[in-house]
Amino acid sequence: MILTILKKELDAYFSSPLAYVLIGLFSLITGVIFFNLLVSYTDGIQAIPPNLAQEKSFVEEVVLPLFTNINFLFLVFIPLITMKLFSEEKRQETIDLYWLAPVTETQVVLGKFLAALGLILAMLIITGVLPLVIWGVGIRDFSLLGTSYLAVLLNAGCYISLGLFCSSISGNQIVAALLAILGIMFLWMVSWGGHLNSNYAVAEIFVYVGITSHFERILRGLVGTQDLIYYGTFMLLLGFLTVKSLGRRNW
After folding, report:
1. Which of 48, 129, 179, 244 is positioned for an S-S bond with 166, CB 3.0–4.6 A?
2. Pair 154, 231: CB distance under 8 Å
3. Backbone angles phi, psi at 127, to 5 degrees
């Protein structure tokens, strides 16, 4: 049943203009950001003496800023992808069709989660042309590229989980999207609050609860068990809350 729901949701995405508009916008914005970063890097290399050129890191000046900006783009793109997954079905009362079939809330949530993640993967696959551009201009530094993709994918999984939960508690798509955006911003601000807190223990709790520190560590290749546990726990918890939210119909 999960695969059936996954196929249904992917068909719904790609049979409407939304998926193509989002993929097109994402590709355009990402391409412009990459081009500007690459031009800035090459101009910087040419402006300094050759013996100092090796001190400029392509990864630090192009790769990491690019994926940081991709993560920022997901702040808007993912809530737009998830906002209608439950809200629209509640409004049209088509969600009741799931409960007439031999399907559980968990299967519905998993199917919709995987469909949204599939659309995000389609966006990221298009960025696969960027390493080819890098290779074409003679740059061979591909370090941290794999962990950069891993970092944005894990963050995307968390954002999708949060977006699904927000969509499950609201019958209005716009409200669901706004709640998801605010939730993502809160995850960012919690980490920033930890850096501003003078109490070491409280600061460490804030930093761990916030998503930014985990993202930055994996982005730089420091894939730790605590980070993977954080992401796994976050997605499972939000998935559980979404299942419970859908189960309210039985109360």
Report:
1. 179
2. yes
3. -70, -5
